[in-house]
């Protein structure tokens, strides 16, 4: 069989050259690379051919801004791969030319606006008998292939989350930096907390942990997955994609620029692409050549259990920049095998994960997967002692995805002016008798988080806190308001649950216990079988009570 001729646009670039290397590793393809600079493209062709003796790379000078179908027909191509970018604000000129030339087309586009331009070409691609796929890259090609496998047969999806953490020594082409700067600080539409909302790009800095890679910072990134994850998996709570730089100084430096870009008098940051690229090069040796990717979903599997499925990838020895090219290589092989019918579509769900994994296996890349049955935070903290609790107390601390409770409370206020001022600052409820109370407990596991949010509403006076198990089986819960975290030691018995203060910190910095607020709480069951609570918070050094509230709650049964 005659080898298929594949044109790689941007074949001399950071991603394109790696894609060419993957294609040269098989005898199925003859590779042609294109660029505007004749000397550069010829030099790149010689270098790439030298890596695989016996397989010549043909150079050709092309300008995608003026590319026509006739240009492609003259090259006798089977397929065109666009690995050049940036795609933000671009038109599908190359895809249209490929269709008219009777060539298959694949690109590595990661721009939300660009990928939307490809599905409208579907009828045209079908008439021409060619496959047109956009986004055959880490996002959305790989991320969606992973999620398709992980969530197969699930009854419900609550959250989907994906993140890419690049190594500091990964190549940073000017086009890639310009693409990021085009949306950093600009409004990004994202599905979060069950609603569509706008957040600034490169905002929401968050630490994630990838097994084998460690802790990395990531922030909100503008990618097609922000639309596709919400559309394809219909999560009830969130669909988020984040990206990060290995060095905190670079990650948070970009975050600071993004905050500056939000100011009304600041224009586009894209003009900073070259100086930022040079600055990153100066810091190149401070980081590593190890990067990673995390994909996670939380939901209800076929057996009815709430689970969290996690897929993690660690790229060693500088192989990270090759990962975005692997879905495109897999797509070409799947098309060559006749497993994708002529159409124009986004690559999400079109490239089987098996085909991408076959490319991953050839590289120094480690992939791990796991599925965990979710355990409520208090059960995790108390381990076997949780089963000693009375049924109403166990029920309240087993909220599932979300649980609502209603009741009433007597509230006793602060005892002195200082305590009253602090209570108002924190937002603690004001004094009252038989005050209507609602409590919503949400399990926020997923999207990189692992905690519960408790929102208490005392007749319109609301305050919320976050709670998580400090360590499995340690009998300690951490509760936090803003940057302040408080450790609460738990004592479970057949009569109820007792909480006592056991330390506090700000961020990771421990603070003197003597200067910390004091908390004491008891959860029990009254003679009517109702869940009861008695909570008191006081200032340190016996400076007075902040608030005490006591009452009862009953679960709200969901409507049938």
UniProtKB/TrEMBL annotation:
Domain DUF4166, chain residue ranges per copy: 389-553
Gene3D superfamilies: NAD(P)-binding Rossmann-like Domain (3.40.50.720)
Domain Saccharopine dehydrogenase NADP binding: residue ranges: 6-132
Name of one Pfam family that matches: DUF4166
Cited PANTHER family: CARBOXYNORSPERMIDINE SYNTHASE
Protein name: DUF4166 domain-containing protein
Organism from which the protein derives: Prosthecodimorpha staleyi
């Amino acid at each position: 069989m005659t080898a298929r001729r594949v044109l790689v646009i941007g074949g001399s670039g950071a991603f394109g050259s790696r894609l060419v290397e993957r294609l040269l590793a098989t005898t199925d393809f003859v590779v042609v690379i294109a660029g505007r600079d004749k000397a550069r493209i010829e030099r790149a062709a010689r270098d790439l051919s030298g890596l695989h003796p016996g397989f010549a790379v043909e150079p050709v000078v092309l300008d995608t801004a003026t590319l026509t179908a006739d240009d492609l027909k003259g090259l006798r191509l089977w397929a065109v791969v666009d690995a050049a970018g940036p795609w933000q604000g671009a038109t599908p000129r190359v895809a249209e030319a490929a269709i008219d030339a009777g060539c298959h087309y694949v690109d590595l586009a990661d721009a939300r606006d660009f990928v939307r331009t490809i599905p409208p070409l579907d009828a045209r691609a079908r008439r021409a008998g060619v496959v047109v796929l956009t986004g055959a890259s880490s996002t959305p090609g790989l991320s969606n292939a992973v999620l398709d496998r992980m969530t197969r047969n699930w009854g419900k999806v609550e959250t989907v989350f994906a993140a890419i953490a690049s190594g500091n020594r990964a190549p940073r082409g000017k086009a890639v930096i310009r693409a990021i700067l085009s949306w950093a600080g600009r409004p990004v539409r994202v599905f979060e907390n069950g609603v569509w909302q706008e957040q600034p790009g490169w905002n929401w800095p968050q630490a994630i942990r990838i097994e084998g890679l460690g802790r990395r910072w990531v922030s909100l990134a503008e990618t097609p997955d922000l639309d596709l994850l919400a559309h394809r998996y219909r999560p009830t709570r969130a669909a988020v994609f984040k990206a990060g730089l290995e060095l905190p100084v670079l990650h948070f430096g970009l975050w600071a620029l993004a905050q500056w870009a939000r100011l009304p008098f600041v224009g586009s940051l894209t003009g900073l692409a070259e100086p930022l690229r040079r600055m990153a090069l100066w810091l190149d040796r401070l980081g590593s050549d190890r990067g990673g990717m995390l994909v996670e979903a939380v939901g209800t599997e076929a057996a009815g259990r709430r689970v969290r499925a996690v897929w993690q990838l660690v790229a060693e020895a500088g192989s990270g920049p090759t990962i975005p090219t692997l879905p495109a290589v897999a797509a070409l092989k799947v098309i060559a095998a006749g497993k994708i019918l002529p159409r124009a579509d986004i690559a999400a769900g079109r490239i089987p994960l098996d085909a991408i994994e076959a490319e991953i296996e050839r590289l120094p890349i480690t992939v791990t997967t796991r599925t965990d049955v979710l355990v409520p935070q208090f059960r995790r903290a108390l381990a076997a002692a949780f089963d000693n609790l009375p049924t109403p107390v166990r029920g309240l601390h087993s909220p599932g995805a979300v649980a609502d409770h209603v009741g009433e409370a007597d509230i006793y206020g602060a005892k002195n002016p200082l305590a009253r001022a602090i209570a108002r600052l924190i937002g603690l409820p004001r004094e009252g008798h038989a005050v209507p109370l609602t409590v919503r407990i949400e399990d926020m596991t997923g999207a990189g988080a692992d905690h519960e949010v408790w929102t208490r509403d005392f007749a319109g006076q609301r305050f919320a806190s976050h709670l998580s198990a400090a360590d499995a089986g340690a009998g300690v819960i951490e509760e936090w308001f803003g940057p302040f975290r408080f450790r609460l030691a738990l004592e479970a018995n057949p009569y109820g649950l007792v909480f006592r203060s056991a330390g506090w910190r700000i961020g990771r910095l421990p603070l003197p216990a003597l200067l910390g607020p004091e908390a004491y709480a008891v959860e029990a069951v009254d003679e009517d079988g109702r869940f009861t609570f008695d909570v008191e918070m006081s200032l340190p050094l016996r400076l007075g009570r902040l608030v005490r509230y006591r009452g009862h709650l009953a679960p709200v049964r969901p409507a049938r």
